[in-house]
Amino acid sequence: MMNPTEENVTTFFAPAGRSDPAELQRQQASWIGVPLLQPMIDAMSEVVLILNQNRQVIGANRRLLELLDCQILDVLGKRPGELVGCRNAEVGPDGCGSAHECVTCGAVEAVLQSQRSEDRVSRECRITLKEPVGGALDLLVSATAVDVDGQRYTIGVLKDISDQKRLAVLARMFFHDVMNTAGGIQGYAELIRESLPQDSPEGEEMAELTELAEQLIEEIRAQRDLTYAETGDLEPEFEEVDAAELLVRQQHLLAKHPVAVGRRIDVIVTPGVTLVSDPRLLGRVLSNMIKNALEAARAGQVVTVRCDSVDSDLEFHVHNPQVMSREVQMQIFQRSFSTKSGSGRGIGTHSIKLLGERYLGGTVRFVSCDGHGTTFSIRLPRSPALTQREETHWSV
Q1: 3-state secondary structure of 150
Q2: What is the pLDDT of residue 391?
Q3: Residues 55 and 148 placed together within one structural domain of the fold
Q4: pLDDT beyond 50 at 395
Q5: Which of 95, 107, 305, 334 has the fewest C-beta atoms lying within 10 Å of its C-beta?
Q6: CB 95: neighbour CB atoms within 10 A?
Q7: Residue 363 and residue 377: Cα distance in Å, rounded?
Q8: pLDDT greater than 50 at residue 46
Q9: Same domain, 155 and 171
Q10: Domain annotation covers residue 388
Q11: pLDDT tens, 202-214?
């Protein structure tokens, strides 16, 4: 039964109306009678709510009750915003979901849309808390409608993504500020270099400083792109790329890198070969391939970089004479795996696959065997669809 006064209330978003206590208890009993339901939701690490058609709680998992330090009867009949302390839960004419501000609430939208369909609906939701002042929650809400005993209910899963959102904001601020600082160093060094005589020792030193500043900026961009790539926020910018120019530039940049000491980089490519790609991201992939090859090669050995035309595609290959063990080969693209000691390693090969496949639409592979050494390759279409592709999977 519904409260008729509440049912006739005009709201700004979700409809009004609440079930009376007797109806709530009957609905709760229906759900308790579903075999294995409560053990299943209790096993989940996220908060799980069972809502009736009036968006009221008639069931919850242990995770929620532990967080609120309460019993199920304490939350029975409440709505999600009322449970978490949303500032707007008391503003609307019928509580949570009925205020003007609720129009932008992803949680309410997910529940309402799930009630209208049989699909799982997920929305992000930012809730401004009543207490503490200025407090907020960022949630990922997934809502799925199910029918039990002729009535439609919604299973809502609430995942707290506040830390994830906070880190994303901090990362953007950090990259913005540090790029500005590094760019200022580069610009200042360039001004000093231009003011000095061309043949002076100081001019050569300032040219070296300018180049080091440029390398620093490139390293910052690389970390920024990888961070955004892993969160799905990276947007490739496709344009025509000259393969020979790109490889020669990588050869020039990496020849002075510490990992290249005592080793040589040979580039084999036909001039005038082009493809449509993101030159920055493709350069990043090739740079990581070459760096890994230089690190694996011994002093005096040669790392060979080659570009071949294969049907309507281009293949870039980076070869070094060393062979990886089978154990290394099985883990090579895992994010945190590295053949070198120390934490925080293993990003290079991970980024090769992430950027090369998901964002450039290519296929990354490698071959490592006795007598042939190790070759990493990326095969790319000359003119890919300018959309983000799902990461493909392959086996060696």
Answers
A1: coil
A2: 38
A3: yes
A4: no
A5: 334
A6: 24
A7: 8
A8: yes
A9: no
A10: no
A11: 888 888 888 888 8
* Burial environment of residue 257 by CB neighbours within 10 A (0 to 12, 13 to 18, 19 or more): middle
Crossing angle of the two packed helices 279-296 and 243-255, in degrees rounded to 10: 50
Which tokens in the block code for residue 181?
Answer: 């600082």
The residue behind tokens 């036909």 is: 270
Burial degree of 206 (CB within 10 A; 0-12, 13-18, 19+)? buried
Q: Determine contact, residues 89/96, Cβ cutoff 8 Å.
A: yes
Domain that holds residue 327: 239-381
CATH at residue 35: 3.30.450.20
Are 105 and 91 a contacting pair, CB within 8 Å?
no
- Pair (245, 209) in one structural domain: no
Residue 133 maps to a domain: yes
- pLDDT, tens digit, 9 for 90 and up, residues 163-193: 888 887 888 888 888 888 888 888 888 888 8
391 found inside a domain: no
CA distance 93 to 74: 22
Q: What is the pLDDT of residue 381?
A: 94
205 and 220 in one domain? Answer: yes
287 and 184 in one domain? Answer: no
Residues 73 and 80: their CA atoms lie apart, in Å, by 15
Token pair listed for 176: 């913005």
Structure tokens at 282: 């493709």
Take residue 236 and report the two structure tokens written for it.
Answer: 């490739």
Q: Tens of pLDDT along 232-251?
A: 888 899 999 999 999 999 99
395 in a structural domain: no
Residue type, position 84, single letter: V
179 and 277 share a domain? no
Judge residue 300's burial from the number of C-beta atoms within 10 Å of its C-beta, 0-12 exposed, 13-18 middle, 19 or more buried: exposed
**Window from 58-72, 117-131, 210-224 with minimum mean pLDDT:** 210-224
Same domain? For 253 and 335 the reply is yes
Q: Taking residues 312-320, what's their average pLDDT?
A: 95
In whole angstroms, give the CA distance from residue 244 to residue 307: 8
Instruction: For residue 132, give every residue at least 6 positions away whose Cβ sits within 8 Å of its Cβ, in sequence order, or none.
Output: none
Per residue in 263-276, pLDDT tens?
999 999 989 999 99
Q: Both 59 and 86 in a single domain?
A: yes
